[in-house]
Amino acid sequence: MDHTFHHRLEAAELNEKNLTGATIYDGRDETIGTISHLHGDGASIRVIVDVGGFLGIGTKPVALQLNQLDVMRDDNGTVHAVTDMTRDQVEALPEHHH
């Protein structure tokens, strides 16, 4: 998928309502996981991403800083994000506990 022309979300749009359920892709457009929820606010927002597993079973929640993601909306209005991290790097992160 070419993300070049997708519309980047403004700071005010980077909220739980818009980001929950968004798919995270790596630089090769491979799916890494899905945002389950957010923690914090402002510059300290952490995005909790469910990675691994199959159809939601056996997933592991990990935390990324929001600034590690390029969050955008495609032409259909679907919010998604791209990270420079690989799937293996994200899956190797420690499990996030509430």
Overall description:
It is a single chain. The protein has 98 residues and is mainly β. The chain has a single domain (7-91), classed as PRC-barrel domain (SH3 type barrels). The chain is 9% helix and 37% strand. It has helices at residues 16-19, 87-91, and strands at 7-8, 23-25, 31-39, 46-51, 60-65, 69-73, 79-83. A 7-stranded mixed sheet has the order 1-6-7-2-3-4-5. A hairpin with an 8-residue loop joins strand 4 (46-51) and strand 5 (60-65). The longest helix has 5 residues, at 87-91. It is globular and about 30 Å long. The model has no long low-confidence stretch (mean pLDDT 89).
What's the quick description here?
This is PRC-barrel domain containing protein. This protein is mainly beta.
Topology:
Layout: E1 7-8, H1 16-19, E2 23-25, E3 31-39, E4 46-51, E5 60-65, E6 69-73, E7 79-83, H2 87-91
Parallel strand pairs: 2-7
Antiparallel strand pairs: 1-6, 2-3, 3-4, 4-5, 6-7
Pfam family, one: PRC
Protein name: PRC-barrel domain containing protein
Domain PRC-barrel: 18-80
